[in-house]
Design a protein that fits this description.
Layout: H1 10-24, H2 31-38, H3 42-48, H4 52-77, H5 81-94, H6 97-102, H7 105-113, H8 118-144, H9 154-174, H10 178-189
Helix pairs in contact: 1-2, 1-4, 4-5, 4-8, 5-10, 7-8, 8-9, 9-10
Length: 193
């Protein structure tokens, strides 16, 4: 016997939930926030996300992981992948005021989930480590091809970039204007010139 068919586009629901979690954080997001923001009733919510809020948040993290995978494909196809990474960092400065205040949902999750939910923390950490590895591989190739003067170990430079990323996502909450961020970001990126 088949269950009740879903009346909702799950991808669309997850995208709506992403916006809510990104703005409020996991712990501060109530079920009522999700139901209202996703325009869904509680029965349909639990029919779609049987694990409730936690399952939905895991789907949100998977959605962000997919965005990084798409960025990885762009890097693979680019003749100047290092410039794409630099452009990504510079784009953080150009974000709107609300985006500055929200930071990064993945970095936020790492900070928020410590001592609260080991599964969610582990998933968020894994995503950032994948991005770090992406940076490391790109830097290593650029070093081998003579596109970077700095010959510091690529793994250390990859970790440096993920550290810069995490730091910028806090700093842009303090200084949420492009002109206050772009020079700082450019200075940080000098290490991979």
């Amino acid at each position: 016997m088949r269950g009740r068919p879903s009346l909702y586009d799950n991808d669309s629901l997850v995208e709506k939930a992403l916006d809510i979690f990104w703005t409020k954080g996991y712990s501060a997001t109530a079920l009522s926030d999700l139901l209202q923001g996703m325009n869904i009733g509680s029965g349909s919510f639990y029919n779609t996300f049987k694990g409730g809020k936690k399952e939905l948040f895991i789907e949100v993290l998977k959605l962000r992981r997919q965005a990084f995978k798409e960025f990885s494909r762009e890097l693979d196809q680019s003749s100047k992948p290092l410039e794409l990474i630099k452009d990504f960092f510079r784009s953080l400065a150009s974000a709107d005021y609300n985006s500055h205040l929200r930071g990064c949902v993945i970095a936020n999750a790492v900070a928020e989930m410590a001592f609260i939910d080991a599964d969610l923390e582990k998933e968020a950490v894994a995503i950032l480590k994948d991005v770090e590895l992406l940076y490391t591989d790109t830097i290593r190739k650029a070093q081998m091809n003579g596109f970077i003067k700095n010959q510091t170990d690529a793994a250390l430079l990859g970790r440096y970039l993920i550290t810069v990323y995490n730091g910028i996502n806090i700093t842009r909450r303090m200084y949420p204007k492009k002109n206050e961020l772009i020079n700082l970001i450019n200075m940080q990126l000098e290490i991979i010139s």
